[in-house]
Amino acid sequence: MAEKRDYYDVLGVDKDASEKEIKKAYRDLAIKYHPDVSEEEEASEKFKEISEAYAVLSDNDKKQKYDQFGHAGMDGFSAEDMYQNINFEDIFQGFDVGNIFEMFGFGGGGFGRSNANQPQRGSDIYTEVSISLEEAFSGVEKEIKINLDKLCPVCDGSKSKPGSNPKTCETCQGTGQVKQVTNTLLGQMMNVRPCRDCGGTGKIITDPCTECNGKGKVRGTKLISLDIPQGIDDGDRMRVSGEGNSGDSPGLKGDLIVSIHVEKNKTFEREGQHLYYEKQISFVQASLGDKLNIPTIDGKTLEIKVASGTQSGTVVKLRNQGMPTTRSKIRGNLFVELVVVIPQKLNKKQTELLEEFAEISGEEIHKYEKGFFDKVKDAMNSK
User: Fold this and answer.
1) pTM for the full model?
2) Which of 38, 81, 214, 354 is 20 to 30 A from 93 in CA distance terms?
3) pLDDT for the residue 251
4) Pick from 171, 160, 158: which is nearest to 199 by CA?
């Protein structure tokens, strides 16, 4: 299955595009790929793709979730929820809107639910957890506290006071849907929409539950134990099934989606499976060679040899000392960059020895003579 394209790329707009720019981009593309106009073989699929992108980016709530969590943030929306904010009649004046509705699978030429009285699934909950690089290396169990909607413990989600029964909605006769016929240039079009009086449930609550005020749900908190696997990377997301908001009945809970943030590490930098570490050495070590102890992500140290004549910027690769992945325990590498540090101040003896070394090496050293401004600066610093 092909990976979904970025919604902004689909519409060809920047992430800071205004609502007006997003709507214009969608209208231009939608008319181009409308099945009644376009002769391209994949016009129907392209039309669905740009309509889905517009449905998300034109809705502030969906857009915010998409900007934060990407396509994973849209998993909790049904097809009806996704497209309900699009007014196709406004955008496609003169086109057969009924064909569009059929394309998205909304029976009856509208956005009404095919089973209006069917209990609806709860929405997903999104949160973020921060872990250290060491915890990402080994895996860790985190306990997180979330706020969520729970079924009312008194009415069990029925919304009515125990012992009372709701009455059938007179507007929709218990179907949860109302039908509206509109005359267009292409003939009559029947639009089916959720009943506003009963909210699409087909029932009117006459004696609401006092615990939840007739909502069927109450707000609460819950502690979730999250088992974060080793090798997880910054920005990865975890889905915990059935730990989201409650739906209209038991067993219809949404999911908990956790975005993982791996904190910056003072010792190592991470790039995928590989780790990078900077080790400073003196010019004497670089010249004569040495043995160095290098820390590793698992808390151990490894000894490496510095060859004589090592240049600053030399990189030593330590195999299998990097990070694992969530799919494999095979680790990446640890790259150690050797940086030669030149001392800023030398005592008299050090200076004499270096001058002797230069003389032996046949180097001609031209000493830097301080000027007037350098002397004034030194005098001010000494004070």
Assistant:
1) 0.60
2) 81
3) 78
4) 171
Find the radius of gyration of the CA atoms of the chain: 33
The confidence score (pLDDT) of residue 108 equals 41
Please report which confidence band the pLDDT of residue 181 belongs to, taking 50, 70 and 90 as the band edges: confident
Cα 86 to Cα 110: distance, rounded to the nearest angstrom: 11
**Token pair 């900007």 is at which residue?**
67
Which pair of structure tokens corresponds to residue 189?
A: 């079009």
39: Cβ–Cβ under 8 A, 6 or more apart, which residues? none
Nearest to 284 by CA among 234, 354, 382: 354
Q: What are the angstrom distances between the C-alpha of 343 and each of 280, 282, 284, 354, 366?
A: 12, 8, 11, 12, 19
Question: Which positions ≥6 away from 152 have C-beta within 8 Å?
Answer: 159, 209, 211, 212, 215, 216, 217, 218
Give the CA distances from residue 309 to residues 286, 312, 323, 343, in Å, rounded to whole numbers and listed in that order. Answer: 6, 10, 31, 18
Q: Does residue 178 sit in helix, strand or coil?
A: strand
> DSSP letters of 30-81?
HHHH-TTT---TTHHHHHHHHHHHHHHHTSHHHHHHHHHHGGGGGTT--HHH
Cα angle for residues 217, 256, 330 (degrees, 5° grid): 165
Contact 254, 73 (CB under 8 A): no
- Here the tokens at position 204 are 């009117």
> Which has the minimum average pLDDT: 17-21, 97-101, 265-269?
97-101
334 contacts: CB under 8 Å, gap ≥ 6 = 268, 274, 275, 276, 277, 294, 296, 297, 317, 318, 321, 322
Measured CA to CA, the distance from residue 126 to residue 123 in angstroms comes to: 10
User: Tens of pLDDT along 186-217?
Assistant: 556 677 788 888 878 888 989 999 999 988 89
Q: Closest Cα to residue 161, out of 219, 217, 213?
A: 213
